[in-house]
Hints:
Elements: E1 6-12, H1 17-27, E2 34-40, H2 47-54, H3 56-60, E3 64-68, H4 74-89, H5 92-95, E4 100-103, E5 109-110, H6 115-130, E6 136-144, E7 149-151, H7 159-164, E8 172-175, H8 176-181, H9 192-202, E9 207-218, H10 227-244, H11 247-259, H12 262-270, H13 275-290
Parallel strand pairs: 1-2, 1-4, 2-3, 6-9
Antiparallel strand pairs: 4-8, 5-9, 6-7, 6-8
Amino acid sequence: MKKSFFTIIVVSYNAGEDLLKTLKSIKMQTFKDVSIVIKDGGSTDGSYEKARDFLSDDEKCGRALFIKGKDHGIYDAMNIAVSAVKEEAGNKAKDTEPGFIYFLNCGDIFSNSKVLQKVHSKIKLDEKNSGTIVPSIYYGDIYEMKTSQRVSSVPKINDFACYRNVPSHQACFYDERLMYRYAFDTVWKVRADYEHFLRCIYVEKALAIYMNLLIADYEGGGFSETRENRKVSETERQQIIHLYLPKKQIQKFDLIRKLTLAPLRTKIAENPKTAGAYNKVKSLVYKLKRH
Length: 291
């Protein structure tokens, strides 16, 4: 597979028409220096074959890579895809400027046709102004289909943001060097992307750079949002944060969370009837923090 500025990884398993929906969103991007990796877990619904037909020209020119086979879940599938990209890149990853890896789940789509163009322009402008290429995570906002609301990401990644409010995985573009050095730790069943983000920030000292851009329309209702996995998610969050923050700081943040009625705010944010007002207030607060 040819080395591209953006590598979009799509993990699928019996995704039906959602897989094509997501791929069409990628193909509609005006920025074309893009490679697509499909990691399929062994679908039997024909979606993998349809995807391959749809991207046949891209595959022939080295812009699409297909991997089909069993895996041990979504994070293992992501790791397999990243490993394949790294192997395909070989020494080219060392000899050229780094590209960026982005994960787009089946059913999710880019918010408009110019997302990648705008992200590329922002990255290149930062590189020009700084004169260096520091491993970075560029992130923006998402549109939540479930509530029909734009969900703003925190504009500055600090300890409190890492404690509770990291950007949605669908909002993040990772410098490939960060992905190549560390795989997702599959000991975490629901929160491996959260642990990986914190590891990039605290261990790799990556820059986290906010872009006031709408990145993806997020379908929701996926793996991490079942009732059972929500409980697992919170348990894992508490365990992960203790790997990176001092106990006293966590206790302080726990108190802040209780005083600000975090569980109630979550319910308000997820209710289609109240999400609009909540997100407007949240966006205003974040806007003030940027200035």
